[in-house]
From TrEMBL:
Domain Ig-like: 114-204
Domain of life per record: Eukaryota
Xref: InterPro entries: Ig-like_dom, Ig-like_dom_sf, Ig-like_fold, Ig_sub
Protein name listed in UniProt: Ig-like domain-containing protein
Organism name: Oryzias latipes (Japanese rice fish)
Amino acid sequence: MKDFHSADVCFDNSSCWTVTCAQKRICALKGSSLNIYCKYSHPHDQPPKSKLWFKINKNVNQEEQLKENNNKVTFYESPNQHNLRFEKLSKRDSGEYVFRIERNSREWKESTFPEVTLIVTDLRVKIRPSAEVTEGQKVTLTCSTSCPLTQNSNFRWYLNHQPLKLKNKHLVIDAVTSHYAGNYSCVDKTKENSKSPVKTLTVTSSPTTWKAVVGRVSAIVI
């Protein structure tokens, strides 16, 4: 059984054992790369014996020590900071992570709020009011994720695998025509391998339409 100490009481962090993880909750795209980092301090004459990351499984009350895998997981140091880097995130990487530094063979130090929660999501195209609409209706397509992305995003839309000029999360067609029917997908240009599955928009003719309705595509910036 490992011993976990409460917070040290001191006036100068450079002489204390401290661990601080600024990121408490991270939402990242499947297939992207990600850095999780924690800052730490220790007495000048007592460097940590080890610095380790763990993945916590609260459902079965277990934890798994992470090990470096050059194709997937790497660790690296910057001044008073330890970094955990993921490559090509998958949904299996979702979970809670803890960083600990070892004082001695039986004493460990972790953050007061230790867990960093990682949620790995993918992109999905959502169509409102429906994926099957009638000419003249207003249609909104959204490049959607299951949680708000932590990192900045730069969306781009495709219709039948051809890029559109609009680069926002929402694509709005004020008055849809059959010209806009087809297969839509979206990508985050800042992340590799982040393209969504295709979603088909079907447009049927309105029996009450006596003249052609010219649709206008716009975007909402959020």
